[in-house]
Amino acid sequence: MTSIAFIGLGNMGGPMAANLVKAGHTVTGFDLSPASCDQAKNDGVSIAGSTLDAVRDAEIVVTMLPAGKHVLSVWADILPAVKEGALLIDCSTIDVESARKVHTMAREQERNLTSLDAPVSGGVGGAKGATLTFMAGGAKQAFDRAEPILSKMGKKVVHCGEAGAGQAAKICNNMILGISMIGVSEAFVLAEKLGLSHQALFDVASTSSGQCWSLTTYCPVPGPVPTSPANNDYKPGFAAALMLKDLKLAQEAALASGASTPLGAEAAQLYALFANAGHDGDDFSGIVNFLRGQKG
Ligand code: NAD
């Protein structure tokens, strides 16, 4: 049994902390939102009066926060207060630069702290069902210590490399996802104009070279894949606002590193238009309806 502090008990962090409790760990949590704290308390998390109170006695600290600025500020507060030798794991999706910065801040404490960036894929369903995929960046020693804890919240834990490599893997993967969802959606919109049924395109492309996750698991039109959000009025799933966030992070990283990502840039622009048209809370596959409405 490990003593774990969990900061950020929102849609993802709440159920992740609950799974650590279920696995027999002692979990002390904190969130700025009283409603999130109340929910976590019902799930067996002890709620501390502040972030600092939550982390003071913990061997492992997990953060699950909205963006890089929140992680930078929370880590700056807690690093001087955590126990000597503590392991800090950030599971939020943030920019690579901030991820690397917090690793450096931990190292600069010179108190044997180890750290890992470990963003996730799998969404709220994966957080609840403990089926997330973790992509971790940091030293092997930190990864080996974190792995048994992360595996209580997910089904796959991958060590991607040194500091920031987890965030890099996350934004590269989601850039593929954003681009491929637009590609699949465009194909359905074109098929409609050509008089080709959704099912016929699906039957061909799902067993041909157009096959991809956006088509076969998450098909953006209703019918061919009954479990996809298209069959549930595009309720998320994975909200367009979160896809836009990840595509923007990919573009920031492309700019900073000099990588050429023209389709990633176009996908970010299209998701910005889609989200700003009032669809930020819709599932990201709803972009098919937005594309259908555009003039060719
Ligand atoms: P959320 O907004 O539901 O939860 C974030 C929580 O952090 C909130 O409850 C907020 O009150 C809390 N918080 C903010 N600042 C704080 C502070 N200083 N101290 C304590 N608590 C603070 O967001 P979420 O959906 O749980 O997402 C969390 C992270 O996971 C994000 O980085 C997101 O991009 C990533 N993510 C989300 C999903 C998803 O499907 N929701 C999937 C993969 C990754």
From TrEMBL:
Keywords: Branched-chain amino acid catabolism, NAD, Oxidoreductase. The active site is at K170. Its EC number is 1.1.1.31. This is 3-hydroxyisobutyrate dehydrogenase. Residues 164-290 form the 3-hydroxyisobutyrate dehydrogenase-like NAD-binding domain. Belongs to the HIBADH-related family. Gene3D superfamilies: N-(1-d-carboxylethyl)-l-norvaline Dehydrogenase, domain 2 (1.10.1040.10), NAD(P)-binding Rossmann-like Domain (3.40.50.720). One of its GO terms (biological process) is L-valine catabolic process. Pathway: Amino-acid degradation; L-valine degradation. It catalyses: 3-hydroxy-2-methylpropanoate + NAD(+) = 2-methyl-3-oxopropanoate + NADH + H(+). The keyword NAD applies. Residues 3-161 form the 6-phosphogluconate dehydrogenase NADP-binding domain. SUPFAM superfamilies: 6-phosphogluconate dehydrogenase C-terminal domain-like, NAD(P)-binding Rossmann-fold domains. One of its GO terms (molecular function) is 3-hydroxyisobutyrate dehydrogenase activity.
